[in-house]
Amino acid sequence: MEDLDTLVLRTALGWHDAGLPVVLVTVARTWGSSPRPPGSLMAINGRGETVGSVSGGCIEDDLIQRIREGGVQAACASAAPTVLRYGISADEAHRFGLPCGGTVELVLEAVQPHSRLEAMWQACVQRQGIERQLDLRTGEATLRPVQRGEQGDGVPVLGEAHFCTYLGPASRLIVIGAGDLSRFLCQMALSLGFEVVVCDPRAEHRASWHLPGVTLSHEMPDDLILRLQPDARTAVVAVTHDPKLDDLALIDALQSEAFYVGAIGSRRNSALRRARLHEHFDVPEAALDALHGPAGLYIGSKTPAEIALSIMAEIVAVKNGIHRPKLDTVAEGKAERESLPARPDAATLPSSCAV
User: I need a labelling partner for 22 at 20 to 30 A (CA). Which of 16, 83, 156, 308 fits?
Assistant: First the structure.
């Protein structure tokens, strides 16, 4: 499944290639509460059809009405890009459904060949980071590749003459092991816009495993990790319970730029895994500190779907900058509860239950 940026660019490009007028809308800045963060994309064609979003719906309705009543030029005001601000007054905030008096500033541009949508879309598909400089006087866009860390926090910068935005590769999830847990995990990841790859060299496990939108690999896990070279927008989770498979993936994933590396298992098995990786495979303690094991936030999960939810919640938390100490606080709270003598259901918890 495509992430939203890739979907917007592909759809807008298709409309433009079909001869339809198209407006690309980008959230430039927000103040207060806003439904969509800066950098969010939306496209509207001359028929009023949309893809993506910039608010909860009311701003989209206003933009569609502008186009239907006066065409793309009415929405953009001229051939040059236009900056629109919604929610300045309390009345406007109420009218456009902006919560708590929030304000959103948008950049609208009529899509032309010099908008460089084709190159932008290709960069997303090829998992390349790019910086886009839009000339607000002419609508001409220039692109340049950027490396990890080069784009700072990725927030757009709107100046008097130029609008600078960043596009990075979609978040990606690599799951080691095909089974019920991985199926639920992949379904959630797809709904969140992740590119998803499942790896399982065991033919009997792959035989009945299929999920639209997921790439299924029969490679050995370490070969897959070395081939894909996880970047800073990739998460890796091992769920086979088989050290011969999980350990291979974890060893290489912990040496990559992956923002999250995790493995399921009980606390005891996680401790044994850590010792095994350090003593037998010389994985440094510093690298092991980045391993999330048991993977997931503690939510009392018992079923595969609940365990998948806890893992996906932790992945999203780490992706969004919620640092490990905050996650450990949850784990410590669970450990304290487990130390209490009266816990009749403790023995029934599955070994894969996430912390």
Answer: 156
